[in-house]
Amino acid sequence: MLDRVYSRAVALAASDQAIWVMAAVSFAESSFFPLPPDILLIPMILSQPRRAWLIAAVCTVSSVLGGFVGYAIGYFLFDTVGRPVLEFYGAMDKYETLRAAFAQWGSWIIILKGLTPIPFKLVTIASGVAQFDLVAFALASLISRSLRFFLLAALLWWFGDAVREFIERRLMLVTAAFAAALVGGFVVLHYL
Known about the structure:
By secondary structure, the chain is an all-alpha fold. The protein has helices at 2-13, 18-29, 38-47, 52-76, 78-88, 92-114, 120-129, 134-169, 171-191. It is elongated.
C-alpha cells in the first residue's frame, strides 16, 4: 500500500498540476492545514531537478502568503479560530510565553521556528495575536521559508539520484522517519 501511495505522489509530482497543488498545500499549511508541503516538494524536485529553484520559489511565496492568513486568524479571529487551532496542537499553555517573547525577539522567533518541524501556522497565528509588526513579519517569514525550502531544494538537486534510490529502497524507513520528525515537532512544541 505504501508503494502505491509513493507511486501516486511521484506521478502527481511529475504532472502539470503538481506545482499548483504544492502551492495550495504550502499556502494552507501556513495557516491551518496539518501536513507540510514537503510531501510534494521532495518528489517534485526529485522528478524535475531542473525546476528545483522554481519549485522552491513557488513553495516559499505560497507559504509566506498563507502566513498572512495565519496572521489574520491570530489578529482578528483568535477566539473563534486561532484558539481552537492552538488547542488542537496542544500549544495553549505556551501561548502567553510566546506572546511575551514576541515583544523582544519576534523576528528571530519567526525565522528560527520557521526552519524547524514545528508547524509554521503556530508561528503565524501567534504573530497575529501579538500584533507583531506586519512588515517585520513578512520579512522574517520570507527569510525563514526561503532558507528552509531553498536549502532542501539544493540538497535534493545535488544528491537527487542518491536520495531517490535511498527512498525507493527504504520507503518504509523514510516514511517512518518523516512521521517521527512530524510527531517530534509536536512533541518539541509541547515541551518548549
